[in-house]
Each structure stands twice: as C-alpha cells, then as structure tokens.
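Chain A, query sequence.
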Amino acid sequence: MENGTYFYLMLFENIGYIRYAFFGLGFILYCAIVFFNALIILAIFLERTLHQPMYILISCLSVNSVFGTAAFFPRLLTDLLSDTHSVSREACILQAFVIYSYATNENTILMLMAFDRYVAISKPLQYNNIMNPRILSVLIAISWIYPMLCVGIAGILNASLTMCGNKLWKVYCHNWEIVKLSCANTIVNNVFGLFILTTTVIMPLSFILYSYVKILIICRKSSLDFRRKAYQTCIPHIVILLNFSVALFCEVTLSRSLPASNLLIGGFLRLQLLIWMSSLTP
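Chain A, predicted structure.
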C-alpha cells in the first residue's frame, strides 16, 4: 500500500473485544434510524392531509437522515469487525462527501422550514400562492443541489492534494483531517472550505434567526390567540433545529464522530412531532 493511496482510521486500534459491543449498539442504532425515518416518510406519503409544505420538508429531513447514515454506519460496522482499518483514498473522499452533504443539506432544509413558518405567520392569506407545489419543489431542489455541488467541488480539491501521511484520528473520513495530511499548499482548499461554511451554515442559520425575530415582532403586535397558534406551529421546527444544532456543536467541539445519536433522536423527535401535529390538522 503506497502512502496516500490508503488511509487508516486510528481510533479503531486496540479496542479489543469491546468492538463487538460497539458493533451491536451500532447495528441497533442504524436499524432504528432507518425504521423511524422510513415510518415518517411513509406516513406523510400515505396521509393526504399531511401533503403540506411543513410535513413535506420534515420528510425531506428524514430522507436526508437515511442518506447520511448510509455513508456512516455500514463502513463503521465493517471496520469494527475488521482487523485492518484501512480505506482507499477514493472511498474515503466519497464518504466525506456524503457525510458533509448530509450536514449541509440539513441546514438548508431547516432554512426552508423557517421560511415556510415566516410566510405562514406574516402572510397567511398569500401562503398558498407563495408556497405552492411548484415553488416548493424548486426550493427543495436548490436546497439539495447547491450544498452537494459545493461539497463535491471540495472533494475534488482534496483528491488533487499530495498526501504526506495516512493516519486519520477519526471513525469516519473527515475533510479537514484529510487536508491536514497534505504536504502541498492547501490555501485554495481552506478558502473554499470557508466559503462553504459561510453559504451552507452561517447564512442559513442567520436567515433562520432573522425569520424568528420577525415572527416574534409580528406576534408581539397580535392577539393572544394568534400568538398561541403561531408558537404552536413553530414548535416542530424549533425542536428539530435545536436537536441538530446541539449535535453539530458537539461534533465540532469534540471532533470525534458523526453525531449518530442525532440521527436516531432526530428521527424519533420527528415521528413524535408528526403524530402531535397530525392531531392538530383539521
């Protein structure tokens, strides 16, 4: 194996028989994530009263969760049972692409959910015209294509780097860890990474914050009954947003593993919120 052709995931080294316990837990988590999210997608697809923008966006989050776990858990479970924890450079970059696409897609979909709530509360009479199926389809397509295009370009830039090391202190392939192994000039990668961070994380979160500030301003000027309904309709988005934000913060802070628990808890929360919101739908 030539240096730079394969990467080694070092966090799997010397874990002994505990690997089997981790494998069992990981397998249960993976099955639960797929089950909860598939249940949400199926419920929204079959129940015609749920064919509304907010529910459709929740189903998009579930699809995205299944997409993200498909890149993480199968590889993780294989490595736990393997004695050699190597991954080809191409497979590593592909895994990083899918995982980062999952994270950025989640941000843009949450931004669309904030926009949907903002329109529903600020322009209730025009809501059906603004959030019609055609516009919603275009917005969802953009929210998926743009982040994946950016992450794809970052992957191509990483693939062109000359590697001077092959040890990744992660349980999955991480773009920044790959870049740090390079002995070439990485200024282009760093600048483009900052661009991705700005357009797929900072800007969506800023828009979400702006939307809720505007919603709070509108609610302050409205009746008590209007405020109650407005807060009630925003709860699902706020809970999902907080869940993802906390998991993302933990990932950035601890920098150890993809927040798999976020994918499971997120799916379960979305299921509970879906049941709760269905009871409110006339």
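The chain has a mean pLDDT of 80. The CA atoms of residues 6 and 89 lie 5 Å apart.
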